[in-house]
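Design request, tokens follow.
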């Protein structure tokens, strides 16, 4: 009986090790930017997603988090839906680029604060999806 329990325990621990977080620092999140009130992917977005997909395929046991955001133009509810739609469009493209859909966690956060954003357009900074592999 002890031997069976020990084998079950070891098998369970081995399963946990297979899903453990990657060692070392996480790769940086890959941003995908959008036009105002759009969830359409342009050539720059497709290139960024392809880059993230390559990173995800290189870390096959790591989760992939796709977080959509929006700027402050319009209502909070509309921007919540827009951020969710952007995240889902990116997740769908990641899957099309070979990342297993079961690894991808999708979330929309709505309006993101842009105070303190250095250089460039704060609104453009907010109209994005971040792809984090292993996060």
């Amino acid at each position: 009986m002890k031997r069976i329990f020990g084998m079950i325990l070891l098998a369970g621990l081995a399963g946990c090790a297979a899903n453990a977080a990657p060692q070392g620092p996480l790769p940086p999140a890959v941003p995908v930017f959008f036009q105002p009130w759009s969830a359409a992917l342009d050539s720059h977005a497709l290139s960024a997603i392809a880059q993230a997909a390559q990173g995800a395929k290189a870390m096959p046991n790591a989760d992939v988090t796709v977080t959509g955001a929006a700027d402050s133009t319009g209502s909070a509810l509309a921007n919540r839906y827009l951020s969710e739609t952007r995240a889902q469009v990116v997740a769908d493209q990641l899957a099309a680029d070979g990342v297993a859909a079961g690894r991808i966690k999708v979330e929309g956060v709505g309006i993101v604060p842009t105070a303190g954003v250095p250089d460039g357009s704060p609104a453009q900074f907010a109209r994005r999806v971040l792809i984090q592999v292993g996060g």
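Comment from the thread starter after seeing the answer: thanks! The radius of gyration is 18 Å.
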